Amino acid sequence: MTHRSHASRRQFLKLTAGAAGASLGSALIPGFVGHAFAAAAPTDKALIAAAKAEGKLNVIALPPDWANYGKMIAEFSRMYGIQVNSASPDASSAQELQAVKSLKGQSRGPDVLDVGPAFALAGVQEGLFQPYKVATWASIPDNMKDAAGLWWGDYFGVVSFGVNRNVVKNAPQTWADLLKPEYKGMVALNGSPLGAGAAFAGVFAASLASGGSLDNMQPGVEFFARLAKAGNFNPSDATSASLVSGQTPIVVNWDYLNIAQAKKEASKVGIDTVIPSDAKPYGGYYCQAISKYAPNLKAAQLWEEFLMSDAGQLIYLEGYAHPGRFNDMVARGVIPQSLMAELPPAAAYKEVVFADKAQTEKAQGVLKSEWARMVKV
Fold first, then answer.
1. Could you please report the per-residue DSSP string of 168-237?
2. Full-model pTM
3. Tens of pLDDT along 258-275?
């Protein structure tokens, strides 16, 4: 999940919302649909007053149908009376960093960013961010934040199997299951791991279940080589249409994409989302950061408080993207049961692991040298 896939956005994430939560205070949010649940959000009066005085917030690369950002923006603006200017919703993480540099000192420069981890690290190296720690900082996992507060993970996905139950009678529960003869020609990735983030993650996840580690993706490549030799690997690039039609009835993809597709096509086909049980889940997350040159600094800080409050985190979850503070919220029992029922079991997410920049670059090197040679499809 180091960059957004435009195809994935448009095909998988046509989401709606409504949610709940808590952070700096206990202001109830009325009007959330779908759950009878009292929600709370930031209530720091001094911060809210300062943000309202600025009156606007500049965001970038936040499509309304991606991770429920349409609802997030609408609720923030409604609650605090702050105009949100959303620029270039389909921009990449690299373009976000460029906007910080090219619009430095201008009133339309981005206040906040939502970038992949590699670009968060690049932004730190280039001095593009300023530190800020939200009130819920302690409950953000250590492996999803910069110790100095320059960036932090806001939501994540894990690798899963999307299974078309009209075609697949016994859904695979483990990576090892995918090698069974009953799945001949059924297993596909969402693109090539040499270029697609979700497919890259799929090979990484397979490696963790095959004796590999975050420092060693080779077993993942070997697994897909065995899968191809067995005739189970379908080299077609999986799409929403191919999953629904049954052309690729088992798709290795991010959980929130498979879940969203299952909801969207529920009237046509039954789709299960399975988190493989034979390894720790491999995850990918996005990072929040405040621009060093933010023209609306207090509004930026209030936005981050809202995103990382229980209220904002639940809005992400209603878009099927797991919030960064998911495990903490489960432990405190603040996620509505009706929402939890739409997701894979929470236990599967307790030990999610993420690759760092060095591990990701090493894995990319392995794929470039070994994938075509070994998998041969």
1. -SS---STGGGGSGGGTTTEEESS-TTT-HHHHHHHHHHHHTTT-BTTB-HHHHHHHHHHHHTT-B--S-
2. 0.77
3. 998 898 899 999 999 999
